[in-house]
Amino acid sequence: MNKTNLILGAALLGAACLPALAQQKPDAAATAVAASAPGTGTVAAAVMISARVESIDKAQRQLTLKGPKGNVQTVTAGPEVRNFDQIKVGDMVVARYMEALTLTLKKDGKELVAKTEQADGARSAAGAKPAGIVGRQVEVTADVVAVDAKTQTLTLKGPKQTVELKVPDPKQFALVKVGDQIQATYTEALALSVEAAAPAKK
What we know:
The chain is mainly β. Helix content is 8%, strand content 51%.
């Protein structure tokens, strides 16, 4: 399984893969891992971005952030980011983003084609530095409605749309037939924290 499968699987789930801020290709840490076993595969990615607060709209709880490559993005700090009023222009916002997708083959699946979603979050203590974390998990069961051996592509029909999923591993592909089901579990988490601006040099 690879990054392409992560994108296609997320499309099946109706989920965006990376928030706009993460698309700024940070100068710091970005990691990805993948693992597979017969009938199952997982791919996960994590990225950390630092961006400077350029302006603040307190009424709308919006921050205009400048990324490491000069990209500017306006983001809304949700209720999970406590102590929003402490944020100042010049502060650094550190965003840590993680996503993972697991695809599991259900032979001769009889489960209902469906989608479920759950979300959770946490925030910093009152008076502490502004911070928060929000996460969600989406699970979709889709029917395998077509198998193309020539391109090693599966056609999956989910509860709302149909997508094609390329399976680059021949051994994995050989396990799947029309009438099976694929269960996709997509997890993402975004943590935001704010660091005070560095003191001006004298």
